[in-house]
Amino acid sequence: MTRTGNPRSYQSYYVYEPLPVRERQMRKRRLAAKRVSESAMTTYRLMMPTDANISGNVFGGSIMKYMDEIAGIVAFRHAATNVVTASIDRMNFYAPVYIGDLLILKAAVNYVGRTSMEVGVRIEAQDPRTGRSVQTGSCYLTYVALDTKGRPTPVPKLLLETAEEKLRFRQAGIRRRLRDEERAAIEKL
Ligand SMILES: CC(C)(COP(=O)(O)OP(=O)(O)OC[C@H]1O[C@@H](n2cnc3c(N)ncnc32)[C@H](O)[C@@H]1OP(=O)(O)O)[C@@H](O)C(=O)NCCC(=O)NCCS
Predict the structure, then answer these.
(1) How far is the CA of 146 from the centre of ligand 1 (A)?
(2) What is the pTM of this model?
(3) What band does 90 get if pLDDT is binned at 50, 70 and 90?
(4) Ligand 1: residues within 6 Å at CB?
(5) For the domain 34-188, what is the CATH superfamily, name and number?
(6) CB 81 within 8 A of CB 115
(7) Domain ranges (residues) in the chain
(8) Confidence at residue 3, expressed as pLDDT on a 0 to 100 scale
């Protein structure tokens, strides 16, 4: 509470102001380092006729939408604040996906910068009749965390627990450097 106006006047009153201490505590709690497993997710989607392209197989754009959706949720869970897709790296499709297949999307945070996060997505298609799965695609997406005013805001550090997570972090660090260099080189022209 803050007292405003002339203290001797009847017009003097108290106004409520958010406590900076509480804000700082909330921010500190949000920014506590998180494990990869705390935000990682796997989702399943049955490929329906609405996902088809004109050849009758699954349309690549449908898969990209599902991929951005799950990766965005993973980034949101890690950052615990609103996020936006900043970039999507080259999307690789290794094999076709068919209507009636179960699309399995596995996503996890690979790397965090100050305000950005790289999320890796592995895409598999499973024939529910045989249970056989094949990897059909993979992609890396970068999300940026935003504050309530829509400005980039820091994200929690990543606690790396397994050898695989450590390797992915290092690989993603190389991609991050290459992305920065590419952007800088193009902007310099
Ligand atoms: C992403 C966005 C918030 C970045 O804003 P900006 O003013 O460039 O922010 P900054 O320069 O401070 O960079 C913030 C972070 O984003 C990263 N970044 C910015 N542009 C990027 C890009 N194209 N690809 C990957 N990372 C990017 C920076 O490397 C930085 O990361 P760091 O904090 O971990 O070091 C802004 O470009 C934006 O709002 N884009 C539109 C996003 C959107 O609407 N997506 C949905 C598509 S419909």
Answers:
(1) 10
(2) 0.88
(3) confident
(4) 84-87, 113-116, 142, 144, 152, 179
(5) Hotdog Thioesterase (3.10.129.10)
(6) no
(7) 34-188
(8) 46
Residues 96-116: tens digit of each pLDDT: 999 999 999 999 999 999 999
pLDDT in tens, 3-54: 445 555 555 445 555 667 877 788 888 899 999 999 999 999 999 999 999 9
Annotate 35-61 with DSSP letters as a single string.
Answer: EGGGT-EEEEEEPPGGGB-TTSBB-HH
Closest ligand 1 atom to residue 117 Cα is: 34
Tell me the best of 144, 176, 186 to mutate to test the pocket of ligand 1, counting ligand atoms within 8 Å of each CB and taking the most.
144
- Ligand 1 atom 9: residue of nearest CA: 152
- Ligand 1 pocket test, candidate residues 81, 85, 116, 151, most atoms within 8 A of CB: 116
